[in-house]
Amino acid sequence: MSRFWSPIVHSLIPYVAGEQPTTGGITKLNTNESPYGPSPLALEAISKAASDTLRLYPDPTARELRMAIAESFGLDKDEVFVGNGSDEVLAHTFQALLNHEEPLLFPDITYSFYLTYCRLYGITFRQVPVEAEMRVRLDDYRQPCGAIILPNPNAPTGIGLPLADIESLLKAHPDQVVVIDEAYVDFGGESAVSLVRSYPNLLVIQTLSKSRGLAGLRVGFAVGQRPLIEALERVKDSFNSYPLDRLAQAGAVAAWKDRDWFERHRAMIIASRERLAAALAELGFHVLPSSANFLFARHPSRPGAELAAELRSRNILVRRFSAERIDDFLRISIGTDEECDRLVAALGEILH
Ligand SMILES: Cc1ncc(COP(=O)(O)O)c(C=O)c1O
């Protein structure tokens, strides 16, 4: 605390990112990164971009990347907005589209950055409780509101909603923006991108951090009809004209176009997830059904904090949240099969 702070800083609740260890020898299953390095074509493009052209500012409009994304979805580049990780895209979305007189609705168990943005931008919000089995119940969103944001699949539960449910939510709220945060959609969820042309109130946000193995490059994007995208551009150009550097733009274009790498690696992660879910169930864990690159699991006889600490002492990192209702759950990112085996062996040792 300091007398030099602007008043708002006192009321912020900063997001706490998962641990990024600085030493080797750690099995890192705590921040939902891909266990596989990105497409070699992306690495090649980044190397090529690391040249004397770095003295020049990057394209402020990231035209080529927006075109590549738009083309793959059958959209126009002006229906795509890109940013420095989907966190930045989300931040601009909260400021540009979600701050209204009526409250913004989102689940009580969800991505904790939403609460952080509400504090940062002074947004009125209401958290809608998920049901006992941690599912989002869409009927609970049939209430007056300023806007809605839902991750699909939800985080940290991993539970997905069918596209038909998202469409009925859009129909029920024609005068409110509905944001679907699809950070994990490539691991078995149903994307709402196909609904963008039909619903002017829909904004879909995705990232290259997870299914493209590029968390370190910081690239995310939103797709929506032109008026929504224009609002994001107005905020972006009032904040930072160049959120994506030359390396990020080059790497992201190449990664996006490498469908073969993408399809192969997401299939590997889904297969590892199913394998790990079965092994955890065998150890007595209650594992929520996941459509993401992580599992959310609780053991009936051991507190989550104790399990996480025991794993940490064995150099295995998983994520645990201290919020009510989920404090006994571990959120386990899907690693390689070898990393998952290491986790299962350690848990077997701890539990028996
Ligand atoms: C639900 C959700 N949305 C968005 C993000 C942000 O991802 P990034 O900023 O790496 O694109 C995350 C990151 O873990 C997430 O869990």
TrEMBL record:
Report which superkingdom the organism of origin falls in.
Bacteria
N6-(pyridoxal phosphate)lysine carried by residues: 210
Q: What is its cofactor?
A: pyridoxal 5'-phosphate
* Residue ranges constituting the Aminotransferase class I/classII large domain according to the UniProt record: 26-347
Gene Ontology molecular function terms on file: histidinol-phosphate transaminase activity; pyridoxal phosphate binding
Listed under catalytic activity are: L-histidinol phosphate + 2-oxoglutarate = 3-(imidazol-4-yl)-2-oxopropyl phosphate + L-glutamate
UniProt xrefs under InterPro entries: Aminotrans_II_pyridoxalP_BS (IPR001917), Aminotransferase_I/II_large (IPR004839), HisP_aminotrans (IPR005861), HistidinolP_aminotransfase (IPR050106), PyrdxlP-dep_Trfase (IPR015424), PyrdxlP-dep_Trfase_major (IPR015421), PyrdxlP-dep_Trfase_small (IPR015422)
Q: Which controlled-vocabulary keywords does the entry list?
A: Amino-acid biosynthesis, Aminotransferase, Histidine biosynthesis, Pyridoxal phosphate, Transferase
Note whether Membrane occurs among the keywords.
no
Which EC class is the enzyme in? transferase
- Would I find Transferase among this entry's keywords? yes
- Return the EC number: 2.6.1.9
Cite a single Pfam family from the UniProt record.
Answer: Aminotran_1_2
Provide the GO biological process annotations.
L-histidine biosynthetic process
* Pathway membership, UniProt: Amino-acid biosynthesis; L-histidine biosynthesis; L-histidine from 5-phospho-alpha-D-ribose 1-diphosphate: step 7/9
Q: How does it assemble?
A: Homodimer.
Which family does the UniProt entry place this protein in? Belongs to the class-II pyridoxal-phosphate-dependent aminotransferase family. Histidinol-phosphate aminotransferase subfamily.
| Protein name as catalogued | Histidinol-phosphate aminotransferase
- UniProt source species: Rhizobium hainanense
Instruction: Tell me the name of the encoding gene.
Output: hisC
